[in-house]
Specification:
CATH superfamily of the largest domain: PurM-like C-terminal domain
Largest sheet: 7 strands, mixed
Low-confidence stretches: 321-326
Strand content: 15-25%
């Protein structure tokens, strides 16, 4: 961040956050008062999600302000997608080491580019001085009793994943290794910095998926959250993992499955489905043009077994990312 054109807190809010072009009819008071006032439809329930991104922990220090604006909202919209919610509003708490008008302007452009695409309005927040960190709370709406949860998986359910897990983790590895000339660099870095939340998929899984979560800490780590909440186990068939050409071009064969199983930051959806509804999933994949891959099955127990095509057990080095882990 540069320190050009310093502005005060209220000037930053006025110039870069209060002028969002989108104005939803259900927002009666947004930015500019002590609190926001919104209307929640009587037939809906409110879903609240929140994520904090800290410089050097959740993103490299060289990440552009635009990408940070995009991603700080995208990770929250991904949580709403995992619960089958339609996004409505967001609040933002932005901590900056100093006032930098150009950085804030670019950040707001990235934030509002994604917000406008999904009809979500910024309705409040806070700015303060300190180490760079970004906290977004997103608010979504679901039909009463219609939220997707982690706790519904049952023995015999199939396990599905959207997209290509592991690409974002490989983007980070290429960035940290200064491999900008790698042919897959631009694609994998975009998967890291500008994830596309699977909101349409999440809403279409209503009454079909038995459990759902988004992949933020790693496929296996997040699958374990479903297992813990549902009281079940799982078998994952590693040879069935969807690995893209860009993914395969960026990994050593000896580490072929590592990023797909344990890498984070993909923000794809991981969900379970009764076998009787497999045809409905096939139709969703065809209609949405979203790759949905069956990678295993829910079993008895409470742990994950990874198996290859011959039935041999594969032991991953770790399940995924965890704060405060040794």
């Amino acid at each position: 961040m540069s320190n050009t054109h310093p502005q005060g807190e209220f000037e930053l809010i006025r110039d870069y956050f209060q002028r969002q072009s989108l104005q939803r009819a259900d927002v009666h008071m947004g930015i500019g008062d002590d609190g926001a006032v919104v209307s929640v439809p009587v037939d809906k329930q409110l879903v609240l999600v929140m994520d904090t991104m800290v410089a050097g922990i959740h993103f490299p220090l060289q990440t552009s302000a635009y990408d940070l604006g995009w991603k700080s909202l995208a990770v929250n919209l991904s949580d709403l997608a995992a619960m089958g919610a339609e996004p409505a509003w967001l609040t933002l708490a932005l901590t900056l080491p100093h006032s930098d008008a150009e950085w804030v302007k670019t950040f707001s452009l990235g934030l509002f580019a994604l917000a406008s695409a999904y009809n979500i309005q910024l309705i409040g927040g806070d700015t303060t001085r300190g180490p760079l960190s970004i906290t977004v709370q997103a608010h979504g709406l679901v039909e009463k009793g219609g939220a997707l949860l982690r706790s519904g998986a049952e023995v015999g359910d199939l396990i599905y994943v959207s997209g290509f897990p592991g690409e974002a983790a490989l983007g980070l590895i290429l960035l940290q290794s200064n491999l900008q000339h790698h042919p897959s660099y631009e694609h994998l870095l975009a998967r890291l910095n500008r994830p596309e939340p699977r909101l349409g998929l999440g809403r279409s899984l209503h009454d079909i998926a038995s459990a759902c979560i988004d992949i933020s800490d790693g496929l296996l780590a997040d699958l374990q959250h479903i297992l813990d909440a549902s009281g079940v186990g799982a078998e994952v068939l590693i040879d069935g993992l969807p690995l893209s050409e860009d993914y395969r071009a960026a990994v050593d064969d000896k580490q072929l499955y590592r990023a797909a199983l344990s890498g984070g930051d993909d923000y794809e959806l991981l969900f379970t489905v009764p076998k009787t509804k497999q045809a409905e999933i096939d139709k969703i994949a065809e209609d949405s043009k979203c790759l949905l891959t069956c990678i295993g099955e829910i079993t008895e127990g409470n742990t994950i077994r990874c198996l290859d095509a011959q039935g041999n057990e594969y032991t991953p080095e770790h399940l995924g990312f965890e704060h405060f882990a040794e």
